[in-house]
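Weekly modeling sync, notes
Attendees: S.R. (lead), two postdocs, one rotation student

Agenda item 3: backlog of single-chain predictions. S.R. asked that every request posted to the team notebook include the full sequence so nobody has to chase files. The rotation student volunteered to paste the first one in as an example of the format we agreed on. Action items at the bottom.

Example entry:
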Amino acid sequence: MRTLNPVSEEVVLRKLMKNRTRLMPTQVLVLGFISIIIVGGIFLALPIASGTGESIGLLNAIFEATSAVCVTGLVVVDTGKDLSLFGQLVMISLIQIGGLGFMTTATLVFLILGKRITLRERLVIKEALNEYNLQGLVRLARRIILITFAIEGIGALILALKFIPAYGWAKGLYYSIFHAVSAFCNAGFDIIGDYKSFTEYANDLTVNFTLMSLIISGGLGFSVLLDIWRNRCFRKWSLHTKLVVCTTAGLIILGALFFLIVEYNNPTTLGNRNWFGKILGALFQSVTARTAGFYTIDQAGLTDASKFMTSILMFVGASPAGTGGGIKTTTVSVLLLSVFSVIRGRQDTEIFGRQIPNTIVKKALTISVISFAIFITVSMVLSLVEPYPMVDLLYETASALGTAGLAAFNNNTLKPAGKILIILSMFAGRVGPLTITLALAMRLSRDKGNLKYPEEKIMVG
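Predicted structure, as returned to the notebook:
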């Protein structure tokens, strides 16, 4: 096997800096997602993609394509009724591409065609998978593809036990595959129809736990899944895996307890269920808020407190290199650990006997600030063009940025300006605010060597 020169990456990046006509890895990712969205939008705008034989309109088609590629789940048409079989197949293809990622899908195509993957392409794969080095990237992409199809296949088989008896062999198997892919990719699209998602299966243990398992698996991140598979012991896991698993478990448990307490007597959500249904509904709401988009309780019927809590969970989202969006679980973990280190009077950010580099802390802070700025800006602009309560608009914006797909109102009532805002938010949430910022900068930061400016203190707090 050919060994990559450890300085090759730096050499290529320097050449890219000198040649402004060549695209940087972040720009390739952004343009790649845009291209797929445009192509998908054109297909969905065709009359053949509509259940009625009439085009759903270009703006609606772009909205649907963006939501699918960005694995969000927000819709302006009923996927199960308003789209034909062709339209649904286009949607599930876009969902799969969005879940795997632009470059992972491209790698699959390269492998099938026997095309050599160059160093430039490896740089883009590295950026897409959020890896730190170029070693073994193609092998990692191949394993990601195999893991994805294996987990989706197992999920589809389990769901088939419920859907085939209900819908027949052909339709039941199709429903099982569609929803397994949508769940693992954290997309949240359903083809049951009438915008009711899985409310009919609110008390079905098999369907609920299968969907939740798929959602959590996709949201953990492929590197975490590989680490857990290789090292079955918690002590042997990498620091990243430990943080992701602990943070994910903590958010799910805390979220479920919150929803159980707040919605316990709410007649529009959990109030009319038995104790088992209440626990199951609260747990599913906590899991799906982590960028999944499916629901078993009426989102519009949630209390304002639950909507706000769901918005927080959606804003956090899934984990790096996974199929979900949001600012990511590790970003929140690093920020909280940094705060705790300051409170304890420690200079370093530490956890599990390891020290987190300050560069990672700064990156986490940057991602959080940029994302929060986008969140506030979009919410305020939406409030100027849409007539809905502010809590519902905050819910909608968090859902778009976190690529969650939950909504407190029907998105087909959005005005064109509102739809465009949500499209941009979904795109920013999936590609990543930091990636977009770096891509728009159109240059790499230049190293100033050992040059340092004099220090001067300022007052904060």
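Discussion: group reviewed the output briefly. Confidence is low (pLDDT under 50) at residues 1-7, 442-448.
Action items: rotation student to repeat for the remaining queue; S.R. to check formatting next week.
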